[in-house]
Design goal:
- This protein has 5 helices and 8 strands.
- The protein is of the alpha+beta class.
- An 8-stranded antiparallel β-sheet has the order 1-2-8-7-6-5-4-3.
- It is globular and about 45 Å long.
């Protein structure tokens, strides 16, 4: 499994996930840069994603939704805040209304940095999500974000090998 460690730190209000992939950094970057590839691994296998807009450039906005087993839709957005191709990108990730992708009141927005580095013939990735409050962190933990992220990231090696 690609995920090698998950750390939740209430003091810094973060969830950090480390993973290793059997592909070079450039290939892992290409997966995140291309909406059609990203939607194959963003979200748990039971909730596949569909990206309507996606571009890894500072100031851009990605919109997506995940579809549950019963057809329910969960929408979200990314506001891209930093890009250092192919080594890292940063973005705000929030829950959104499924009709117009406006932020959902009362649900947290996470501040994310995804980094990639060459390691042992593959890629070491570090995914860090920071929340504004400990309560927001706990809210997403209660919603299953750790399990969802793990199952999503654990799909990546299989997709890259196909």
């Amino acid at each position: 499994m690609p995920v090698t460690d998950v750390t939740t730190d209430p003091d810094s209000r973060t969830i950090t996930i480390e993973a290793r992939f059997n592909a070079p950094v450039e290939r892992v970057w290409a997966l995140y840069a291309d909406a059609r590839q990203l939607e194959k691994v963003w979200g748990p296998p039971t909730h596949p994603a569909t990206f309507l807009d996606h571009e890894l450039t500072v100031g851009s906005r990605s919109t997506y939704f995940m579809t549950g087993p019963e057809g329910e839709k969960y929408a979200g957005f990314w506001e891209i805040t930093g890009v250092d191709e192919p080594w890292s990108f940063a973005f705000e990730d929030g829950f959104a209304d499924a009709d117009d992708f406006t932020p959902t009141p009362g649900l947290p927005v996470s501040h994310n940095v995804f980094t990639f580095e060459a390691a042992d013939g593959g890629t070491r990735a570090v995914y860090t999500s920071t929340y504004d409050t400990v309560e927001a962190l706990q809210q997403v933990l209660d919603m299953g974000v750790e399990e969802g992220a793990r199952s999503s990231i654990d799909q990546i090696d299989g997709f890259l090998a196909a």
